[in-house]
Amino acid sequence: EQTGKSGYEHFMLKEIHEQPTALRQCLSGRLDRLSGDVTVEDIGDLETPVRVQLVACGTSYHAALYGAQRFREVGIPAQAFLASEYATAPPPVDESLVIGVTQSGETADTLSALRAAKGRGAETLAVTNVVGSTAARECDHVMYIRSGPEIGVAATKTFSSQLVSLSLLIESVAPGVDSERTRALVESLWRLAGNVQSVLDNSLDDIEELVDELSGSDAYFFIGRGYNAPVALEGALKFKEITYEHAEGFPAGELKHGPLALVTENTPVFALVTGDDAAARKTLGNIKEVQARGAPVVVVTDGVLEVERFADVVLRVPETDGLVGPLLVNVQLQLIAYEMAAHLNREIDKPRNLAKSVTVE
Ligand code: G6P
């Protein structure tokens, strides 16, 4: 088994470090840097959808939230659903393309949701890592995320590849909506693997020290807005899955509607801030709210906005396009979850009570 880990202590750490390679594989042949064109051959003649519904579970649901936001940004109405809820009470499909986002292609809830959608006449697409999986076989179309096998129960490289795959899908089915935006996205996707590598290369010492300081807290909160909202949810999920510590993620605007009651000087808050758009600036306001309650604040940022006076600790990721920055932030959060779990001596690759692929509803 040690050989399979290529010298890393855990499969999860190996897979975190495989992300630059996984992302290059995901992008290979799909991106033309010169023309700014994106082509996803897998999906053949899939037409621009009128509406989109995305169904998924766990980490894949967070990718679906990101995807839905991207579709809406290019003018296509889109909504992400937890597959278990969709399967229990399916919404009208109208003229929707229903996309199942599932690493394994075998998650029972996601398959049920896709079957419910198909039964109601929807066109379906699987975005998956596993060639020949049930989702790939049963859907009308399939797009492969090309991450390579993922052994660690906590999904890492497949989440990054799902975000990139959904971005590629959107550019290929809705091209030309905003050519400047597309060009900037293509350029930043081109640089993505290198930027992920630099997050991996730079951060370990800072993170070990941080984890040492923060361990033993009552709970850990993660906040972000816009594209950083699903990344906040994912950061908390990763953290709780492998550390067994209480962690919650919130779209930052929701803090004041309840979660703020839990914030004390013993609940560190990880705040995700990239770019300098309204989402980033409003998040600074939310950081002030938690600071006023004495919470230790760790800001993970690309440094575009000046955050030093809002933070006890600042973790920097490279500056890049607004759609891609959250991906780099996510890699940083994966490392934090991993280091905390290692510090607490947890079963990192096989956390208690969890399975890689859940085949019951
Ligand atoms: C399980 C795994 C999660 C995963 C979820 C959905 O709960 O432990 O890591 O995100 O299933 O899996 P899928 O294969 O459908 O992406």
From TrEMBL:
Chemical reaction(s) catalysed: D-fructose 6-phosphate + L-glutamine = D-glucosamine 6-phosphate + L-glutamate
Membrane-crossing residue ranges in chain numbering: none
Sorted UniProt keywords: Aminotransferase, Cytoplasm, Glutamine amidotransferase, Repeat, Transferase
Domain named SIS: residues: 39-180, 210-351
Keyword Cytoplasm: yes
Catalytic residue list: 356 (for fru-6p isomerization activity)
GO BP terms in the entry: carbohydrate metabolic process
Keyword match rRNA-binding: no
Main subcellular location: cytoplasm
GO molecular function per UniProt: glutamine-fructose-6-phosphate transaminase (isomerizing) activity
Subcellular location: Cytoplasm
GO CC, alphabetical: cytoplasm
Known EC number: 2.6.1.16
General function of this protein: Catalyzes the first step in hexosamine metabolism, converting fructose-6P into glucosamine-6P using glutamine as a nitrogen source.
Subunit structure: Homodimer.
UniProt-recorded name of the protein: Glutamine--fructose-6-phosphate aminotransferase [isomerizing]
Natural source organism: Haloferax namakaokahaiae
Gene from which the chain derives: glmS
Shown residues in whole-protein numbering: 243 to 603 of 603
